[in-house]
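Practice problem 4.
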């Protein structure tokens, strides 16, 4: 056994230690957030294990079929939703849950209620499961005003009111990226310990990037500012090099790369889908929160993304997020277009 290596491991910063440290800066806190987060972390570990086994689905039975025990196999996204709903309810710290998988919000029964509302996409990018591409869980957390009388309005709030946001990426490693409103930190699951370890402290997105990320198959229906922007990425007129295109089609993976390497991720509205595809509460807001906390920007084509006030829980919005300077350019193009039509 390598005792020297083990000795190094005693000062590992696990996610629980990290959040406890953060909480100790707020003497009034009662440890509720740490408990809530530990339940989210448990959900992520569970889904990570299930995703890793997905490639063996042929051996253990495909979704919709029955397995050897005669139980019906659940699709991974359905399973992930159940995992998170159960983990969040049993934390005793939540009152309202909004999941991409559930049409209606879940109101937690009175005996298990707590101070938080969690909005989440349990398994985003699930169309990528069968080919083993990275997928992820996205979440945002709001604090309730009144635990005795939770109302849907508590989650129909602008993203800037979120207390915390994060995602977990199930890729070549399992990475959890979290912000509690004072910077962004990344943790990687150490499978031998079963713990998320701080591997990416205080993530800052480069001020300008060399990558743009968008589904160009929709270009035919784009509006003028988006078309002009992408044209500029490919044929810059200021003597700079063209940007590279990277598009995985899995928001967590595309945003994770953007956060670490810089650049811009776009899911614009278009003639067919004026509000784009991505959902405000559990896709656009958490990712915009993280981007801003890392020094980047997030814009809807009209306003700062985190200022948007949603009126429906599954509402969609166009989104442009990433490096500060890159988002500044697309903002300028939308401002110019708005001026022309004014
Ligand atoms: P989903 O919530 O149904 O999985 O869809 C969301 C995903 C995102 O992960 C990704 O950014 C986007 O859809 C890709 O969409 P498209 O295939 O239209 O490019
Ligand atoms: Mg999704």
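Answer key:
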């Amino acid at each position: 056994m390598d005792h020297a290596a083990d000795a190094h491991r005693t000062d590992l910063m696990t996610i629980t230690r990290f959040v406890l440290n953060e909480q100790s800066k707020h003497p009034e806190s009662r440890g509720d957030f740490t408990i809530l987060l530990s339940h989210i972390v448990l959900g992520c570990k569970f889904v990570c294990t299930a995703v890793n086994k997905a490639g063996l689905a042929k051996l253990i039975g495909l979704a919709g079929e029955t397995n050897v025990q005669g139980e019906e196999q659940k699709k991974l996204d359905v399973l992930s939703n159940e995992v998170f709903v159960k983990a969040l309810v049993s934390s005793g710290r939540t009152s309202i849950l909004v999941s991409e998988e559930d049409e209606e919000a879940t109101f937690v029964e009175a005996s298990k209620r707590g101070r938080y509302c969690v909005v989440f996409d349990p398994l985003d990018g699930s169309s990528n499961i069968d080919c083993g591409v990275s997928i992820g869980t996205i979440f945002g957390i709001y604090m309730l005003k009144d635990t005795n009388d939770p109302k849907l309005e508590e989650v129909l709030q602008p993203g800037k009111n979120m207390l915390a946001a994060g995602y977990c990426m199930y890729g070549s490693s399992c990475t959890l990226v979290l912000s509690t409103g004072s910077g962004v930190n990344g943790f990687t699951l150490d499978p031998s310990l079963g713990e998320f370890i701080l591997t990416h402290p205080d993530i800052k997105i480069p001020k300008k990037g060399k990558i743009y990320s968008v589904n160009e198959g929709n270009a035919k229906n784009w509006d003028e500012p988006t078309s002009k922007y992408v044209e500029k990425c490919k044929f810059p007129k200021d003597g700079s090099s063209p940007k590279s295109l990277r598009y995985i089609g899995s928001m967590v993976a595309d945003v994770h790369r953007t956060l670490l390497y810089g650049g811009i991720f776009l899911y614009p509205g278009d003639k067919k889908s004026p509000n784009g595809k991505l959902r405000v509460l559990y896709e656009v807001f958490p990712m915009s929160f993280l981007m801003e906390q890392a020094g980047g920007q997030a814009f809807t084509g009209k306003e700062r993304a985190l200022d948007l006030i949603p009126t429906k829980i599954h509402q969609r919005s166009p989104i442009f997020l990433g490096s500060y300077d890159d988002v500044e350019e697309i903002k300028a193009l939308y401002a110019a277009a708005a001026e022309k039509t004014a």
